[in-house]
Structures are given as C-alpha cells and as structure tokens.
Design goal:
- The protein is of the alpha+beta class.
- The protein has three domains: about 110 residues, Orthogonal Bundle (Butyryl-Coa Dehydrogenase, subunit A, domain 1), CATH 1.10.540.10; about 100 residues, Beta Barrel (Butyryl-CoA Dehydrogenase, subunit A, domain 2); about 140 residues, Butyryl-CoA Dehydrogenase, subunit A, domain 3 (Up-down Bundle), CATH 1.20.140.10.
- Strands 1, 2, 3, 4, 5, 6 and 7 form a seven-stranded mixed sheet that branches. The protein has a two-stranded antiparallel ribbon with strand order 8-9.
- A hairpin with a 2-residue loop joins β2 and β3.
- It is globular, with a radius of gyration of 21 Å.
- Pfam families: Acyl-CoA_dh_1 (PF00441), Acyl-CoA_dh_M (PF02770), Acyl-CoA_dh_N (PF02771).
- One of its GO terms (molecular function) is acyl-CoA dehydrogenase activity.
- Its cofactor is FAD.
Length: about 375
C-alpha cells in the first residue's frame, strides 16, 4: 500500500493551486465573503469548464470524469489552503455523494449531470435548530399526499442553502428517515441567509411548509445513505482543514524569518521555534490522518466510519491550534482585520464544529471500534 500521491495527482494539485492563486487570492476571498451570494459565478463556471473540478468524482455515464476520492482530497486540500469561496463542498462532497450513494438511477440521471457541468448548485439539508448531527436530530416530516410527498419543518446551518438550485432534504416518513430532492424555488420554501462567524462559507435556514419533494432511494432508507455521506464529508472536510493548517504554518514560519526584533529574526528565539515545531508535528500528523481516510473513502471499506471520525477529530484540533498559533506568532498585526490570519482562524472554528466537534467524533470513534 503506497500512500504517496501519483505523478498525475501531484500534477492535479499544481494545476488547482495555480488556478486558485489566480482566482482565489486574499483580495478575491475578501470581496466574495462580503456578498450574500458568497461566490463568483464566473470563477465557478471556469472551475467546471476549464478544470472539470465539479465533475471529478461523478461517473462518466452522468457527465463526470469518474475519478476516485483521493483526487477529490487533493482538490479539497488546495481549496482549504486558498479559502475558496464557492459552493463546491455543498454541491460535490455533500449533494453529489448523497445521490451517488443512494443507488437511485433516476435521481442520478436527474441531478448529477447538472452538478458535473457546474449549472446546478446543490446542497444537503439535514441539521435542524436542535443542533444535533445524528439520526435523532432529524425531526422534519414528509407525508405522502396522493402520490406527492410534502415536506414540513425547519433546517438550519445548510451550507449554500440560500443559493442552491437543488436541495436534498432528510425528513421522517412513517418508514423512517428518507431523502427527498426539492427545487430551490419550490412553493412553500422560505430561505434565509444566516449571519456566520466564518464569512467564507455561507449558511442558510430553510423553512418548509408542505413543500413538494421527490423521493431519492427507498422510503425509510435515508439514514443508511446519509451516515455514509457524513463519513465521506468528514474526510473531505479533514482534507480542507489540512490545507488551511499548512497555510497557517507557512505564514507563521515566513513571518518568523522576516520579522526582526532585538537585532535578529524572531524565529531564532526558542519560544517561537517551539511553537513552529509543534505546529509542524500536528500538521504532518493531520495529513497522515486525512490521506489515510481519503484512501479508505475511495475504497469505501469497513475502516471508513472509524477513520473518518478519527481524521475529523484530529484535523479539527490541528487546524484550530495552527490558526491560533499563527495569530500569536504574528503578534499585534495578527489580530487586525487587514491581516488574513483571522480568516483562517474563523474557518478553522466553523470547520471544527461542522458535522460534529472533536469531542463528538471521539465518542463516535470509541463506539465504532467497540470501546
């Protein structure tokens, strides 16, 4: 088993990094995080048409390229590094994975080609105001009204929920948790953009009042699909966190070399050396966890649930620590709005809580390995 990336995967990384350095610079991120939409449609179109990023893991029969999860990890790591403002995670990692895991060929044919081409922005709405990430947190209901499914309830913290054309909703039927596809402009659906600490990733509250939906997969089989998707999403987020943590480390080390105090670079002081060394250890360990989880995700093997929780817990802690230490090493300037350190700190905090915090995932890990 070789955990080094292939030449093709490294080339993919280089191409994505060059593109994001040009299209997702600090100035671009600041511009998009101030808008309600939260992304640049022109850049989104270029991602689809020039690089084919949206179609990366979608099967060829549905307009995709059919690559595996390891390639997706490479792309997500670079996006985390650049703090890309785009509905990529919601559309590709959440929605496309949900449709692909559902086994519903009609849903695949209806939704995946649009995601692959970049025309469809999609997301998954499953968390509710109760803030729970597990099956018991899904309280929205769906009833079959003469052959038409009607959904009622409230979903919160829905990533890109206010701009998505397609929303995959988890709701309870008589048979249990089921998944439904809902149009973004459906009647009875009220979408409210939420004010978030991390402005680079937009979230929304969705209120459903007898909204028509199309069943995806089998009635009552939704949680089986969703639990796998949440594992895949945790792995994808871990890769993003690794990219951001590496960027924080790079920024801190460069500043420690450049900043002169008492006639010498601050990186020569032992306290700063120790901080940078601790950050390096955590970032490298986080990479190992995220890459191994990515391999498990590409194989969809039995280890995935445990390794996904392990990677999410460890990478969350590593990113948050790296982003905080980056601010400390920068000193006074690190606290200013003009410096990008706070943007990584806020993304680290929001990613730490997304899909469950490290404590939740350690508990999950203990359950999954039978402790």
């Amino acid at each position: 088993m070789n955990f080094a990336f292939s030449e093709e995967q490294e080339e993919l990384r280089n191409i994505v990094r060059q593109f994001l350095e040009a299209k997702s610079s600090e100035a671009d991120v600041r511009e998009q995080m101030e808008t309600e939409r939260g992304y640049d449609p022109d850049v989104w179109a270029q991602m689809a048409e020039q690089l084919g990023l949206q179609s990366l893991t979608i099967p060829e029969e549905f307009g995709g390229q059919g690559y595996g999860y390891v390639e997706l990890i490479v792309v997500l790591e670079e996006m985390g590094r650049a703090l890309l403002c785009a509905p990529y995670f919601s559309s590709v990692v959440l929605a496309a994975n949900t449709v692909m895991q559902s086994g519903d060929d009609a849903a695949k044919a209806a939704i995946l080609p649009g995601i692959a081409s970049g025309e469809t922005i999609a997301t998954v709405a499953f968390t509710e105001p109760n803030g729970r990430w597990d099956e018991s947190g899904i309280e929205a209901t769906a009833t079959n009204d003469g052959g038409t499914w009607k959904i009622s309830g409230t979903k919160s913290y829905v990533i890109d929920g206010h701009t998505a054309n397609v929303i995959i909703v988890a709701a309870r039927t008589a048979a249990g948790v089921s998944l439904f596809s809902v149009a973004g402009d459906a009647g009875g659906l009220t979408r409210t953009a939420l004010a978030t600490m991390d402005q680079t990733r937009k979230q929304a509250k969705l209120d459903f009042s007898n909204v028509e939906g199309t069943l995806i997969g089998a009635d009552g089989a939704g949680w089986n699909v969703l639990s796998t998707v949440l594992d895949l999403a945790a792995v994808g987020l871990a890769a993003e966190q690794v990219g951001g943590a590496q960027m924080c480390l790079d920024m801190a080390v460069q500043y420690a070399k450049d900043r002169v105090q008492f006639g010498r670079p601050i990186g020569s002081f032992q306290a700063i050396k120790h901080k940078c060394a601790d950050m390096l250890l955590e970032v490298e360990s986080a990479k190992s966890a995220a890459y191994y989880a990515g391999w498990c995700a590409s194989e969809l093997n039995d280890e995935l649930p445990a390794v996904a929780s392990l990677a999410k817990a460890y990478c969350s802690d590593a990113y948050f620590h790296a982003s905080a230490e980056n601010i400390q090493i920068h000193g006074g300037i690190g606290f200013t709005w003009e410096h990008p350190a706070h943007m990584y700190f806020k993304r680290a905090k929001s990613s730490e809580l997304l899909f469950g915090d490290p404590t939740y995932h350690r508990e999950l890990l203990a359950q999954r390995i039978g402790i």
